[in-house]
Amino acid sequence: MKKYKIALVLSGGGVRGFAHLGVIKALNEYGIYPDIIAGTSAGAIAAALYADGYKPDEAVAIFKEKELLKYIELIIPRTSLVKMTGMIKLLNNYLRAKQFEELKTPIIIAASNINTGKCEYFSKGELIKPLVASASIPILFNPVNINDNYFIDGGVLDNFPIKTVEKKAEKIIGVFVNPVNYQDNFNNIKNIAVRSFQISINKNMHEESKKCDIFIAPSKLNNYGVLEIDKNEEIFEIGYKEAIKILNKSDLSFL
To answer: What are 39-53's pLDDT values in tens digits?
Structure first.
């Protein structure tokens, strides 16, 4: 018998990750509460806030309070273009759990070790550093030092960490928030870096999605950039509505 009944897998996707919270709200309304969550980047942050006991609406509100959405701080280029100072403060201020073991629901976070060139999965010990590392888009954000190794966004090596739960859970629900549409605005290095990263992390998604019992991938997220931090409520609503649509068509007899 597998250890968990329902696993939730959340992809990276920058600010599009607010859609994850909308999906979770819909799941809860259908009586679906994941027993374990695996997430990368924005998916990792959404997983941590939910596992810490925040309702999806409450989690979205955190990013609005006191203009906390403006967490990107510009710096003179050296190892990155911007730094995650505000995000670190946000997580320190609002996450009640400081260790993985203190969360109400177990989570697994993917982050890419640039020293070894391998993806590592965090599920024990200190929580916030792996969270920030998992969401640190390369070039755009500074790498994060964890135990004398440097980590960047988990999406570089595993943007959909289903492998961490597929043998542990009876049912898997996957949420993918990084669709790639046509774009032609590449007039600065930030746009080029973000677009290059966005394309690179989509590999293997077609095959990975087949492993899910329910797969939710809101196509309307095509219209939103991964750093459009003022669109959080719109993105949340897109995730919610898409999840309702998919759940209405799905076999939920496992509940």
So the answer is: 999 999 999 999 999
